[in-house]
Amino acid sequence: MIEAKENLSYPKENIKILLLEGIHPSAVENFKKHHFTSIETHDVALSEEELLEKIEDVQVIGVRSKTQVTEKVIQKASKLKAIGCFCIGTNQVDLEAAMMAGITVFNSPYSNTRSVAELVIAESIMLMRRIPLRNKKAHDGIWLKDAQRSYEVRGKSIGIIGYGHIGSQVSVLAENMGLNVFYYDIEPKLPMGNATRVESLDELLGGSDIVTLHVPATPQTEMMMNSERINQMKEGSILLNLSRGSVVDIAALRDALESGHLAGAGIDVYPQEPESKGETFSTELQHVPNVILTPHIGGSTIEAQYNIGQDVSNKLIQLIDNGTTVGSHSLPPLNLPVQKNAHRILHIHKNKPGVLSEINRCLSDMDINILGQYLKTNEMIGYVVLDIDKQHDDQLLEELKKVKHTIKTRILY
Questions:
Q1: With respect to CATH, is domain 335-413 assigned 3.40.50.12710?
Q2: Catalytic residues
Q3: For residues 330 and 90, what is the distance between their CA atoms, to the nearest angstrom?
Q4: Of 10, 37, 239, 341, which shows the fewest CB atoms inside 10 Å?
């Protein structure tokens, strides 16, 4: 017989955690605080081949944006329970493969919002004042003291494309700086403060002194700022891209800058980026006047990285300790209180009719009392959390594994 207990049925010291790409130490500290001790860290991304060598015994993996968790890796990861993306996106993970393997995928979509928004405002000011040019001249020993083509941001118009968490935070900061804020989003979004929603991208581009992009990488946004769209922008305006490298045609942007149609640009993301710190980097925008180039550091502040480390590690810990999947991109979201004097069993299965009935039949046949039962589904997966009477036979887990369409099942505590 299995007796109820507070800790996991699987000892925490045996839960192997692999953290890649220099994830902030706050994540490691949080895992250790919750009694996880088998933690391996690496400062760099791993290739698919390297990951295949390490993944077989890993229960939890943490990555940032460079390590690709492919279907091949997921198929090899027979013990993997969760993938933590310590960043905004989840593009580096094959989400469908993770879903069908019953692996929970978390990210941290909001923790670096402020960091990106502050950089947008900072670059707006620097570019409107033509600081990149004046900075270079000062370094070259040239005293370029004049006010030519140098403007305050107060009273100017900023157009925000994509009014999500970052776009709306930019909106608040920009309004506080005295900018007139306009935004465009494909979904209806309520304005923050006195921001004005425009009905078309054309309207926003033609009326903004500063245009800033905050959109995801999708087929719809790929090269959305092409030659035609850039030419629609207001004469002498500025373009900022701190979202995804695929959304701006860099060659078209360079042409617009060199012709004088645009007065400046701030670019933080690129179509092709180096794999790791210190590698050689090139772009067609290098040495173009009044352009700020940064190496994908929009969210790279100590505060943001600390918060991301805390946020994602907390989600992973809650999953391991309680079966909580709120915030998951692969499993349906459930967040349940812990039942005392009970066992919790997790059952992940394909979303097919009759699975819950079969689970209940197993419990009934073994005369097991249900204290709580919760089912949540998405289009492909069903997730059942069972809280059952502490007195039951070890054979139950084996019987649940035999239920048709089962992907994974385990005793949590």
A1: no
A2: 244, 273, 296
A3: 10
A4: 341
